[in-house]
């Protein structure tokens, strides 16, 4: 029986960003240098396949610092941590390595600078996300307010005459964030913003690639984890820009091709913490059911890299 034809539009760029590459390399280098086990506070990145590989190498993931022995190396995740965490590690004289993405660290420094300049800081982000918890922990409690929607902006209780500034989580929807910034600037015309937008290049590039291909796809798959902010935003972008169906899948094992019998075009991308072998696994799985042709759609070239912490680069 002849297989139906399926054209797969493969987004480029997709998958790992420089911050994720750096964070994973930090764990591997630390294991090479110090030996197993190396502890990691929270998931180094949001992807179970990556975590399983690192566990097999000797990494132990914990929720809080008090689960780590005093004499064991500990790494802080790419999403960043409140200042209280490295302070506690230093008080215990622990060997700790910060794998916070440099673009997240940029937001931390912006927040500190605004606070020192006398501004109340408004953070655009998702409540409970590790990056948001880390950013809010950079300045004293009560000096930063979190907004998730335009409605949140309208309900903000801010003293008249209070100088204001805003920063954003790095993995948000570009379009949604623009609407929230517009609302902030309309309500608070003198609010200070970042000199360069906080949403990171990788988030922006992956969303732009999906925007360009979505309307040509009967369905779009975003390879990523359910707790990955940037991956969930890619699903939203695909639906908002013309794809009739879009799904977040962690691997080929989650795809029931019987649900997609009649499709002729499939868009495929991956969130910034999803390894490429998962993308290729979906393509190979599709070949079992379809005669597949793959077309790569390139919207940007990425050549950014971040240096490793000095303690691991020697």
List the helices and strands and how they pair.
Layout: E1 5-12, H1 18-34, E2 38-41, H2 48-57, E3 59-62, E4 74-76, H3 84-91, E5 96-98, H4 102-116, E6 120-124, H5 130-136, E7 144-147, H6 150-154, E8 164-168, H7 174-187, H8 201-213, E9 219-223, H9 229-240, E10 246-249, E11 265-270, H10 276-287, E12 291-298, H11 310-313
Helix pairs in contact: 8-9
Tell me about this structure.
This protein is 37% helix and 19% strand. The protein is of the alpha/beta class. The strands form three sheets. Strands 10-9-11-1-12 form a five-stranded parallel beta sheet, sandwiched between helices. It has a four-stranded parallel beta sheet with strand order 3-2-4-5. It contains eleven helices and twelve strands. The protein folds into three domains: 5-16 and 201-298, 4-hydroxy-3-methylbut-2-enyl diphosphate reductase, catalytic domain (Cobalt-precorrin-4 Transmethylase, domain 1, 3-Layer(aba) Sandwich), CATH 3.40.1010; 18-101, Rossmann fold, CATH 3.40.50.11270; 102-198, 4-hydroxy-3-methylbut-2-enyl diphosphate reductase, catalytic domain (Cobalt-precorrin-4 Transmethylase, domain 1, 3-Layer(aba) Sandwich). The radius of gyration is 21 Å and the shape is flat. Helix 2 links the parallel strand 2 (38-41) and strand 3 (59-62). The protein has helices at 18-34, 48-57, 84-91, 102-116, 130-136, 150-154, 174-187, 201-213, 229-240, 276-287, 310-313, and strands spanning 5-12, 38-41, 59-62, 74-76, 96-98, 120-124, 144-147, 164-168, 219-223, 246-249, 265-270, 291-298.
């Amino acid at each position: 029986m002849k297989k139906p034809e399926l054209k797969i539009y493969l987004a480029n760029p997709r998958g790992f960003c420089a911050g994720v590459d750096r964070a994973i390399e930090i764990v591997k280098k630390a294991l090479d240098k110090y030996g197993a086990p190396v502890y990691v506070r929270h998931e180094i990145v949001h992807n179970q396949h990556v975590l399983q590989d690192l566990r097999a190498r000797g990494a132990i993931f914990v929720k809080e610092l008090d689960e780590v022995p005093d004499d064991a190396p500990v790494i802080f995740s790419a999403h960043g941590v409140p200042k209280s965490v490295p302070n506690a590690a230093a008080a215990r004289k622990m060997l700790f390595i910060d794998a916070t993405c440099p673009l997240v660290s940029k937001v931390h420094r912006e927040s500190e600078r605004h606070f020192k300049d006398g501004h109340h800081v408004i953070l655009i982000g998702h409540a409970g996300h590790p990056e948001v918890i880390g950013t809010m922990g950079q300045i004293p409690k009560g000096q930063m307010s979190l907004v998730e929607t335009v409605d949140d902006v309208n309900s903000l209780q801010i003293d008249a005459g209070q100088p204001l500034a805003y920063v954003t989580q790095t993995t948000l929807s570009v379009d949604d964030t623009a609407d929230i910034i517009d609302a902030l600037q309309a309500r608070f015309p003198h609010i200070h913003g970042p000199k360069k937008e906080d949403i990171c290049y990788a988030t922006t590039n992956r969303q732009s690639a999906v925007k360009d291909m979505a309307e040509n796809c009967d369905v779009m798959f975003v390879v990523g984890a359910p707790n990955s902010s940037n991956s969930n935003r890619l699903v939203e972008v695909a639906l908002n820009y013309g794809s009739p169906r879009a799904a977040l899948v962690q691997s080929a094992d989650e795809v029931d091709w019987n649900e997609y019998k009649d499709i002729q075009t499939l868009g495929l991308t991956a969130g910034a913490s999803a390894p490429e072998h998962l993308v290729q696994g979906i393509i190979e799985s599709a070949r079992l059911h379809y005669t597949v042709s793959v077309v790569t759609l390139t919207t940007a070239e990425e050549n950014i890299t971040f240096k490793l912490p000095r303690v691991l680069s020697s």
